[in-house]
Amino acid sequence: MVxxxxxxxxxxxxxxxxxxxxxxxxxxxxxxxxFYDDGEVLEAKNALFSIVGNMKLTSDDLPRKVNRKxxxxxxxxxxxxxxxxxxxxxxxxxxxxxxxxxLQRVPTIPPADFDVYKLSETVNAVKTQLQxxxxxxTSVVANQAELTKSVNTMAFMPxxxxxxxxxxxxxxxxxSHDGPSRDVANVTLADMFSDTTxxxxxxxxxxxxxxxxxxxxxxxxxxxADVKLxxxxxxxxxxxxxxxxxxxxxxxxxxxxxxxxxxVDCKLLRKxxxxxERFAAFRVVVNAADKDRVFNESIWPEGADVRDWRFKS
Length: 313
Fold this sequence. Notes:
Distance between the termini: 58 Å
Largest sheet: 4 strands, antiparallel
Strand order of the largest sheet: 6-7-5-8
Radius of gyration: 33 Å
Oligomer: single chain
Number of strands: 8
């Protein structure tokens, strides 16, 4: 027998609950925002946030209710509803069954529209990948240009840059009979290789500096019980991205622990852009002793993006 407390009448929420995860997100939000009016969307949003508020969830990344304004208010309210549904789905939070009392207020999705939205979603994914590739190519070109500039600077740098630290190796004695010689300090490698008379000046050799003493460093490894001094183990932060949206922090922790990796903390990152809704991303903190083991590609699913966490200054 169905408990009436687990039922809630709302055509809009009934539509989203039944199509959630079965059609592209863009198609779901577009259909709802185009079919229902402002009042119906706002009523459904208030009802959903009220139901979730009564659940007393303690998650830090729980989406907050925002009072939208402007011309795109209905679309943004619809996106807030879908975003909260996705959050509850990832957290495996059970919602009441939403029912439709007025069937004429439930939109339909033609199969042809589904194909169009699916194609649009695929095109957006390809665009994102092309942008990533373009960013890598731009970085390589910039590095190559900088390297070329550095090589050219070294090739035409004056050979005698400091008279106090250099010693003249040889100056052609015949140059004093043929005329005044050029200023040795202004001789470049290009001048030397372009000379065909055999009277070019030799560049000066820099004196070798004494090698600096090597600084020794170790990392303590004793775990004996009679050691009175205690050290605080260091942590290593990594970013894990491009995971399935249904992946939770507990799933990530269990996978790492099954591979003998000590997990200090794991947090699901908040999605701030629409394209991020297709993935789940995490900030994972592991014991520094496992920082190399965690980058073993054989323990990660194909396509996962794992890299060191980049801290902003």
